[in-house]
Amino acid sequence: MFTVVGFDPAFKISPFSWVERVNHTTSYTFRPELARCRECGVRKFALFNNLTDEDFKLVHMPVEDIALPRRNTLYNAGDQAQSIYTLRSGLIKLVHYLPDGNQRVVRLVKPGGTIGLEALVSDCFTHHAEALQESKLCRIPIAVIEKLDNESPRLHKQVLNRWHQAVMESDNWLTQMSTGTARERVARLCLFLHDDVTSTCTLPGREDIGAMLGITTETASRIIADFRRHDLLEFKSRNIFVLNLPELREVAGVDGAHVSDSAN
Questions:
Q1: Per residue in 56-65, is it b (16+ CB within 10 Å) or e — as a string?
Q2: Residuewise pLDDT in 10s, the chain (264 residues)
Q3: What architecture is domain 7-175?
Q4: 76: closest CA among 90, 47, 91, 97?
Q5: CA angle at residue 128 from 127 to 129, to 5 degrees?
Q6: I want to staple 172 with a disulfide (CB 3.0 to 4.6 A). Which of 58, 87, 177, 262 is the partner?
């Protein structure tokens, strides 16, 4: 259940109002100025990357900013699906929980990625979406997508491309992170999370790494410690490392471009 902070029931929300909404996991802020979408730093990677000014004029419902703290849940499997999301910063994991309570990470989403595309064809989300890092997202109501889909052929093609991309990412994730030795999997994860802008890698907790790669927490800790001893990882600060890319690519048994291309 959402609550509105400082909300006056007699007050009518205009399309240009800023209203903060908070639930137990997520804080929301309306951001109706769609000009910000045009100026967004990750827009070239995101769902609206090829919309024109005329397309933006069709958007009458608010696109919302979401600040999602680390470890908080964006949505759960079975929740009503009324929106899709574009990740602007942070890291989100999509999780499937097994009958025995164990989790299996289906995909990691990096900035520019689209989350919850199943909302376009299903009433409910199919996975759990949880923030591995403090994250910022845009929440896009399905009604906005449907209107643009009907009136903008460019967006229709873009949505289909995003859907195909999400399927390919899941396939790549399963191939790269669920096969090979434990050392190969950890090396591939490091390469996947490498940030070309900062030249660093922010690793999740060891328990999360184990769940992602199908290895134990102890094995994940041991391999990372071994990578540090052999200068494959250079410690910078808590969970942040500089990568020895050539050596890690050799351990991973894949070329770096192939691993990083599956990021978005």
A1: eeebeebbbb
A2: 322 233 333 333 333 332 333 344 454 444 444 556 655 644 454 555 566 666 666 665 567 889 999 999 999 999 999 998 989 899 999 998 888 878 888 889 988 888 998 888 889 999 999 999 999 998 888 887 777 777 767 666 777 777 667 777 777 777 788 889 999 999 999 999 998 888 899 999 998 899 889 899 999 999 999 999 999 999 998 889 999 999 999 999 876 455 554 444
A3: Sandwich (2.60)
A4: 97
A5: 115
A6: 262
Task: Characterise 114 by phi-psi region: left (phi > 0), alpha (psi -120 to 50), beta (else).
Answer: beta
Instruction: Specify the CATH number for 178-260; select among 3.30.365.10, 3.40.120.10, 1.10.10.10, 3.40.50.150.
Output: 1.10.10.10
Cα–Cα distance for residue pair 227/232, rounded to 1 Å: 5
| Unique residue bearing structure tokens 């940030």 | 195
Closest CA to 222 of 192, 263, 181, 175: 181
Quote the CA–CA distance of 148 and 150 in Å, as a whole number: 5
Structure token digits, residue 118: 């199943």
Q: Nearest Cα to 47, choosing from 149, 126, 193?
A: 149
Contact indicator for 63, 139 with CB cutoff of 8 Å: yes
Tokens 């990083």: give the residue.
Answer: 260
Displacement of CA 15 from its chain's centroid (Å): 28
Q: Which residue has the tokens 């994250």?
A: 135
> What sign results for the dihedral spanned by CA atoms 127, 21, 112, 72?
negative
